[in-house]
Structures are given as structure tokens and as C-alpha cells.
Amino acid sequence: MIYSLLLLSILVWPFGQLLSFVVPTLPFTIYLLDFVVLALSISLICSSKRKQILSTSLTRPLIIFLGAATLSFVVNIKQGIAAGLPLSMFYLLRLLIYPSLFFGAVHVGFKRLKTPIAVSIIIFLVICLFQYLVFPDMRFLKNIGFDDHYFRLIGSFYDPNFTGAILAALALYLVEKNKLLLSVPFIGLLALTFSRASYLVFIIGIIYLLLINKRIKLFFLLILLGIAVYLIPKPFGEGVNLLRTFSIFSRIESWQSGLTLFLQRPIFGWGYNTLRSVDGSRFQIDNSFIFLLATTGIVGLISFVNLIFHIFKNTSNQAIKIIFIAIFFHSIFNNSLFYIWILAFFWFAVGIGQDPTKGYKST
Questions:
Q1: What CA–CA distance (Å, rounded) separates 153 from 164?
Q2: pLDDT 10s digits, 335-348
Q3: Dihedral sign, CA of 103, 106, 108, 111?
Q4: Whether the model pTM is above 0.85
Q5: Phi first, then psi: what are they for 29, rounded to 5°?
């Protein structure tokens, strides 16, 4: 059952927003991936092997972080009620159940998941390319609450920045694996996102790999990205203007607002994901770390940094570490890490990247 649910989650993941459900009586959108991950969580807890499955080297720091996030919510229960208790509790539940992808991946092992992962990534790429070629004008999505994008690759996530983060991370993974030709399609699609944060993540990642591996030929991948961005058709619009400044100032303003909220409640923050009522509407912080500071306070951020430390310490696969670096760096410019499909991608990568000698605690 665990393997089947993990397999299903891998194959559902690339469809993103396409597999969403809106229940009229609920104030949030539910995705098929949510149901699968919840079922996986229940399956892990009910498994006869749950003690072994849940006893990993990351279990303790993970429990500490999730406990800190939950405590921040409980301490600020009034804020959660003001923001809409069902909505706030739903996002906290997501945070609590998605690490089941990590436990499932460690339990099943990468060898049994290698083919499904490849299929999932191919589906993701096909959807991305199909959207850009067939539906380049996605401005109609503004009517249902998304940003309007014109001639930008947004894929099934409906967002060029989050899609770009995944493409950059996967491209860097392949480069570290010395599969340069396989990385080219990812770089080409990355160029189509016009996501400057994703470009920057890829550039810094390549420079890092160039320095530690002394492979000068990696520099040509940067040239390839530059040529692709230059040659891509750029119809009139702010989205494809790489010199646009509105989004930069918008991000800076959100960072300042987030830090202001943190200073008002520095210990436990305002409660995990309860900020929708602070200014009477949806409150967005374009930085995952400032988001944690504002919502879970210094307690939550310290526990998260401790978790990150243990993740890197127990990850033997250098290519997987590059994925982590890419996601964490991208999270400086967007709240990437807590976006559902990047969160799922992250926890799954943590699972398959664990050192086999450190994955489970010795008993």
C-alpha cells in the first residue's frame, strides 16, 4: 500500500493545478495530491512497520520543527480564528502530512522509484511545452485569482517562478550528474519562464559546480541560457521584460512587511499561515524564511535551520544537495518552499537523497 500510494503521488504531482477541486462550502482549493499524501500518511502510521519507517535520523529535528509550527498556531489561535479557522488548520495539516513523502521514499528506496520518477518528469516537461506552444496567452487565469501571464511558460503550476524553480533544480541535478545533453531541454524550458529568480538560481548553481568540479565546459551552459533568452520571441508585455522593476519593489515591500510582523511577535510569530486577515485580505511574503519568522517566530526559524542542517548532514548524494541549494536560494525571492508542489518535490528529494547508512536509526 505504501509503495502504491507513493507511486500515485509521483504520477499525480506533474499535473499540478490541473487536478484541483473546489468545494463550495470550503474556503480553500483541494488537490488530488492532498488526498494521496493524506492517505500515504495514514498508511505509514497504520503500518505494522511504522516504528522502523518513522525512526530515521531526521525524525527528531522534523518533529521539533513541526511541533514549533503547531505551537505557533495554538498560541495564536485567536489569529487563526480571525483568518478563518478551517483555512488556517488546512494549511497546517498540509505542513504536517507532506513529510510522509520523505518517510515513504526512504522506506521504498530510490531503485524502485527510478522509472516512475522519470515518467513523472517527462509528463511535467510535456505539459510545460504544450502550455507554452498551445496556450501562450494565459491572462484569463486572472479571473480565478492567478496572475495574468502572456507568452511565459507557467506549466501546470500556473506560475512561471515556481515552474522555473523546478526546471532550474532539475537542470542543475543533471549537470552535477554529468548528463549535460539531458540538461539542455530543461535549460530551454527554463528560458521560456522569464523568471529572473530561477535564472539566477541556475547561474549561481552552475558557477558553484564550475568552481568545485573545475569543469570549464559548464560555462557554455550559461551561454546556452543567454542565447535562448535572447532568441525567444518577446511580444509586448511587462512579463517578458527582464528589466521590469515592479516585481522587485513588490518583493522588497513584502519582505519589509514580514519583518515588521516578526518584530511585533518575535517568539512564536502570528501563527503558521494565519496572515490572511492581518490587512483584511490575503497577505503574501515573498521569502520562505521571512514567512517562517513572521508566522512561527524565532522558535520556528531556528528549528527549521536545525532541520536543514540535519538534512544536509545526512544526504550523501551531491546532486540531491544541489537541488536543496537551488530550492533554498529560490525561496529568498519567493515563498517557494511552502508552495505545495515544491514542498512535495523537496520532501521526496530529501527521501531519495538520504545516506543508506544513516536513513534509519540503528535499533
A1: 8
A2: 999 999 999 999 99
A3: positive
A4: yes
A5: -95, 135
